[in-house]
Each structure stands twice: as structure tokens, then as C-alpha cells.
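tool_call predict_complex ligand=adenosine-5'-diphosphate
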Amino acid sequence: MVNEAVRKELIAKYRKVFERDPEVMAYAPGRIEVLGNHTDYNEGFVLSAAINYGTFFAAARNAEKACRLVAGDLMKEVAFDVGAISRSSVDTWQNYVKGTLAGLAEVGGVEHGFDGMFFGNIPLGSGLSSSAALEMSAGLALARLYGMEVDKLTLARIGQKAEHAYAGCKCGLLDQLSSLAGQPGCLVKTDFRTLKYETVALGGDACFLMCNTHAKHALVDGAYNELRASCEQGAGYFASVLRHPVKALRDVSMAEWVLYRGGLEALVADRSAHPIGENERVLRGAGLLASGDLNGFGALMFDSHESSRRLFGNSCEELDVVVDAAKKIPGVMGARLSGGGFGGSVVVLAHPRDVETASVALANAYAARFGKACDVSIISPSAGAYVLE
Ligand code: ADP
Ligand code: MG
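tool_result ok
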């Protein structure tokens, strides 16, 4: 469903449930991670994009302290008091909105309740960050309703806190920042040391396919923490041998890694090489895009996946099958796992004229090995979140 149809359907549902028009509406898209894997907590760089699927949030003031919140696609309603916000273990979708409201209330100005409803077209839980889209659309709409000025970084942090404290997911800021900062036809390059971001034009000759394998391998959280610990150990070692300050692996170059890796246990050395290489790939990739070299950029995506597979150890057979198939499909320029790894999705860079055939070929290749196709969505980098005027 295109976004305009989603917006119209939300208004129709809102009128039906609340018997009035919303006073404010905001939209926020999902996001894809394009290059820069496990670089965020190593204080490095990520290239991401806001996507052409998103969530609309509509609201109107309520004279009382009461809040009524409706999930428009489930047509389920919950009620709570604006002065007594707490996380819920049922209808857990409400936690993303409640957490965002609690964050706004900390900034100040949340006095009265609201009648709110949200509705979107992002597949839930498939690595496109429907949760950040919900937080950012709710945050923008409610901030406008309460007459608050909230800058993008503050709003992103409010969303992150909602994930940590209300949804129970210890995510970084990538999802929220990408949803807010995206621009049509552009990638967002974020520096996770300074949290400064800029857009990099992708050009009209490229779009993405997101292949969701739905694979989810056990011990994801344990494995994630273990990888993180190896990165910290690597950074500590390089800080002790290099003659310049090293706070995180962001401060180590691949050339230094080659020279000094011998002092590290092999497993930790390999794991450390991944974020170091990813940082360099993001910076080189942004340069290649600036000069219009999409094939060169795509090759870095394939390298990124190889680094996950051989060095970091966060790939799995499902993801490798998609990436290996992508290498053989005409018009595909690059592919790599997207997100934490150990399952989930592969992001594929392709020419727009080839995406339809490429998506069929990828689904078939996956089905040939695993007996059922992976889900493939066509993604174009799109506008970031906004309040509808
Ligand atoms: P992802 O962010 O990758 O889609 P998460 O598990 O972080 O996956 O977030 C998915 C959850 O967000 C859903 O289970 C649901 O609780 C909530 N959610 C997001 N968008 C909607 C929506 N439009 N309707 C209902 N729930 C939603
Ligand atoms: Mg999420």
C-alpha cells in the first residue's frame, strides 16, 4: 500500500473511532542499514537510509488527563492516564508510544491527555525498524500537539530510551536517527562518536532489496555481548601498543591492525578487524558514491559481508546463501547482512530496472536451498520523518 493510501485510511479509521478529526498528524519511515556493521558501539560510522515504508500517527487533544491509544491495523485500543505512564506486558505495542510520551514529559509540557491512533505499512519485526518509526511518528505528533520544540537528536534519544526502558531492547541510536534524517535518494552517514550525521546522494541508478530470511539463531544476545567484549579487549590492546590515543576501535586503522595484530589472541584479532574494516569501508564508500561509482560501492558491501563471515563470525548459512546468490544475479551490485547478524536480513544494492527480476531470483535461490522463499521488499531511500501541515 502506498503511503498516501495509508494516510487516508488512518484518517478514516480515526474519524470512525473518535468521531472527530485529528488535530495533528506525523509520519516516520523505517530504515535500512547499508554499510557499517557493529561500528556504532565502536564509535565508528554507519551508512543507512530512511525507506519508502512508514507509520502515520494522528492525535487530538483530550480535555482530561486520559489517553486513548489505538493500533489502527489491529484495531485494538488501550487507555491510560498521562500522569501515570508505565510499561505493559500485554498489547506491547503501546510501550513504544508510552515510552516516547514519558520522554516528552521529562522535557516538559505534557499536561493533558490525547486521542491517538497509528497505522503503517512496515512489516513488523523484519529488520526495517517499525518500532523506531512508531516512536518517531508518535514523538513528532505529540510534541506538536503539546506545543513543544524538540530537536532531532533529543527525539532520537527519547525513542532509544523508550526501547530500553519500555520495550526492553538495548538498541543504539541508528534506527531513530535514520528515520528522522533520511532524504529521498540519499543515504545517511552517521558518526557514532559525535552523533553528527550528513546525507550522501545515492543517485537515481540504485535502489535496494531487503531479503528477510526470518532465521533467528539461538544465543543471539549472548553472542552479541561476546563480540562486544572482544571489540573492547581489542581496543584496550591497541591503546597499549599504539603511540596515539585509542578510545575505541574507531581509532585504529587497518594498517595498524596488520602490523600489531600478532600481540592479540587470533579470535580477538579477527573480531577486531571487522569494525576497523567496516569504518574504512563506510568512509571509502561515501567517497565512491560522491564520484558516482555504484559498482565500487557495491563491491564494498560484498567485502562487508565477507568480513562478517570470515572475521567477525556473525553470519549464518541463510544469509550466506542470499549473498552468494546475489553475486550471480545480473544488475546486482552488492549485498551484505544488515543488522546484528546470526539471521535476519540481507540488504542488496541493484539497478532499479533489475530489481523485479533480481527479487524473484533471490527468493528462488533461497527456496532451492531451504524449501521456502525468503521475503523480499523493494526499498528506495526516502524522506525522513515529518509533521503533516
Ligand atoms: P522492528 O523494529 O525491526 O520492526 P521490533 O521488534 O523492534 O522490530 O519492533 C516491532 C514491534 O513494534 C511490534 O511487535 C509492535 O509491538 C510494534 N509496532 C511497530 N509498528 C506497529 C504498528 N504499526 N502496529 C502495531 N504495532 C507496531
Ligand atoms: Mg526495532
